[in-house]
């Protein structure tokens, strides 16, 4: 989510992810990401989608890993709650403020790097069934 250049998706694929999808609303970022994916020969593994969150979210999809790096000024709670049913594994949120507590997701870890925090969530239903 908020994929920008797509380098995190490229990194994921280079480390063994079978597929990745990058979402961003900025046409320039989407064009640059698509060009980079093409140049690296990864079109079959990385999809790039233009659109605003949450409108661009694919309904009925499930993802093993969701990495969300929204602009820090954005309040991510609503988007996290929309992503909860799509989370088949881990959702990672990059943020500065206190970690939100979205319905459907449970905070399982948090790591601070300077003024940036990475919060790791799992789907609540998956945690209750294990």
Helix and strand arrangement:
Layout: H1 7-14, E1 20-24, H2 27-39, E2 46-50, E3 63-68, H3 77-83, E4 87-95, E5 105-113, E6 116-123, H4 124-129
Parallel strand pairs: 1-2, 3-4
Antiparallel strand pairs: 4-6, 5-6
Summary keywords:
130 residues, alpha/beta, Rossmann fold, 4-stranded mixed β-sheet, two-stranded parallel ribbon, 6 strands, 26% helix, globular
Can you give a write-up of this model?
This protein is α/β, with parallel strands linked by helices and 130 residues long. It has 2 domains: 1-56, 3-Layer(aba) Sandwich (Rossmann fold); 62-130, Rossmann fold, CATH 3.40.50.150. It is built from 4 helices and 6 strands; from the N terminus they run H-E-H-E-E-H-E-E-E-H. The two termini are 27 Å apart.
- Shape estimate: globular
Q: Which stretches are poorly predicted, pLDDT < 50 over at least 5 residues?
A: none
The CATH H-level superfamily of the largest domain is Vaccinia Virus protein VP39
Listing every helix as H and every strand as E from the N terminus to the C terminus, the arrangement reads: HEHEEHEEEH
CATH-defined architecture of the largest domain: 3-Layer(aba) Sandwich
Number of strands: 6
User: Percent range for helical residues?
Assistant: 25-40%
Structural class: alpha/beta
Biggest sheet, spatial arrangement of strands: 3-4-6-5
Over the alpha carbons, how many angstroms does the gyration radius reach? Answer: 15 Å
- The separation of the N and C termini measures 27 Å
Oligomer: single chain
CATH C-level class of the largest domain: Alpha Beta
How many structural units, i.e. domains?
2
Biggest β-sheet description? 4 strands, mixed
Percent of residues in beta strands: 25-35%
Average residue-wise pLDDT: 89
